[in-house]
From TrEMBL:
Listed transmembrane segments: none
Matching InterPro entries: Chloroa_b-bind
Family recorded in the similarity comment: Belongs to the ELIP/psbS family.
Keywords: Chloroplast, Membrane, Plastid, Thylakoid, Transmembrane, Transmembrane helix
Membrane topology recorded in Swiss-Prot or TrEMBL: Multi-pass membrane protein
Organism: Rhamnella rubrinervis
Phosphoprotein found in the keyword field: no
Domain of life: Eukaryota
Protein name: Early light-induced protein
PANTHER family for the chain: UPF0041 BRAIN PROTEIN 44-RELATED (PTHR14154)
Pfam families in UniProt: Chloroa_b-bind
Length: 182
């Protein structure tokens, strides 16, 4: 490596300044150094060809590491946390479908369903779904990691939002109408 550096320094000084430069290295006599004169008007340009070997290979795409999910109770159930909207959306999806099913089978509107024993069913369903939704979050499993193909976490959020709006619209329509929707 030292020999390579010495050779490069000799050649560089001889080419750049001509042969009139004093010899800076005692290992190589001056007669072996090239004696080219310096041309200030000469410019050297280099362009790579379109050979297949010279093309750059694409770099592998690496995904940045995801930050570790917090499993603290206050973080999971925070207003902007992962649990509240998902749990409410899941409850709304089950509530909307069951409200329509009971209305079609028994002919009772939403308020009659709540008055005729719907509150205990709502409390049991809420407790089971809340626990089933919270246990994976407290273990550190994110909802996005389990979403694939057609059933994505974003689709679940949007379905839950539409179910919340549908349940409110169903109750409001039945209240204004004064009876069942169907």
């Amino acid at each position: 490596m030292a020999a390579s550096f010495a050779m490069q320094s000799i050649l560089a000084s001889s080419v750049a300044y001509g042969a009139s430069v004093k010899r800076t290295n005692q290992f190589l006599p001056l007669q072996y150094a090239p004696s080219l004169q310096r041309y200030s008007t000469m410019k050297v340009r280099c362009m790579a060809g379109e050979d297949a070997d010279l093309k750059e290979q694409p770099k592998p795409i690496s995904t940045p590491p995801r930050p570790r999910l917090s499993t603290k109770f206050s973080d999971v159930l925070a207003f902007s946390g992962p649990a509240p909207e998902r749990i409410n959306g899941r409850l709304a999806m089950i509530g909307f479908v069951s409200a329509l099913a009971v209305e079609l089978s028994n002919g009772q509107d939403v308020f009659a369903q709540i008055g005729n024993g719907g509150i205990p069913w709502f409390l049991v369903t809420s407790a089971v779904l809340s626990l089933a939704s919270l246990i994976p979050l407290f273990k550190g499993v994110s909802v996005e990691s389990k979403s694939e193909g057609f059933m994505t976490s974003d689709a679940e959020l949007w379905n839950g939002r539409f179910a919340m709006l549908g349940l409110i619209a169903l109750a409001f329509t039945e209240y204004v109408k004064g009876g069942t929707l169907v």
